[in-house]
Amino acid sequence: MYRSALITESSSLPAVFNGQRNFCTSIYFLLERDQFSAFHKIKSDETWHFYTGDSLLIYEINEEGNLHTRRLGKDPAKGESFQCIIKAGNWFASVVEEGGTYALVGCTVSPGFDFTDFELADRTALSNQYPLHALLIRQLTRD
């Protein structure tokens, strides 16, 4: 939806980035009850924003193998928040909470998203790396 016109040269970025990046990018998307965003990771921090609909669960696995569940939604009494941060390099996936119909959410990435920074999880490799979370990984990856 948005890609800033300002560019950061590769010489100003950490070594994990190969090439220049826009300062910032953002998208929004709809997830319906029978859909999920599969486990993946990127090289930038990502801020998720809740817009409307039902609660969205975001599962994040850090490098140490700790699983954190983020709840995006409109009801703080249920532990939901309107936004959360996913740290660069962590694996994450999302799904509409059981019983929900849809969630309209957005993501802001800085330095801006580039497909060369994106890695989609391999089900077997990620399960072998984090065997405690193998069931969740199986549910939220694609063959």
Describe this structure in words.
The protein is mainly beta and 143 residues long. The chain has one domain: Sandwich (Jelly Rolls), CATH 2.60.120.10. 9% of the residues lie in helices and 43% in strands. The strands form 3 sheets. Strands 1-4-11-6-9 form a 5-stranded antiparallel β-sheet, with no helix packed on it. The protein is globular and about 45 Å long. The two termini are 28 Å apart.
Essential attributes:
single chain, mainly beta, Jelly Rolls, 12 strands, 9% helix, globular
Broad shape: globular
User: What oligomeric arrangement do these chains adopt?
Assistant: single chain
What is the makeup of the main sheet?
Answer: 5 strands, antiparallel
Which class do the helix and strand fractions yield?
A: mainly beta
Count of extended strands: 12
- What's the architecture, going by CATH? Sandwich
List the topology elements:
Elements: E1 2-3, E2 7-8, E3 21-22, E4 25-32, E5 36-41, E6 45-53, E7 56-61, E8 67-72, E9 83-86, E10 91-96, E11 102-110, E12 119-120, H1 123-129, H2 134-139
Antiparallel strand pairs: 1-4, 2-3, 4-11, 5-10, 5-12, 6-9, 6-11, 7-8, 7-10
Task: Sum this structure up briefly.
With 143 residues, the protein is mainly beta. It is built from two helices and twelve strands, in the order ββββββββββββαα. The chain has a single domain, classed as Jelly Rolls.
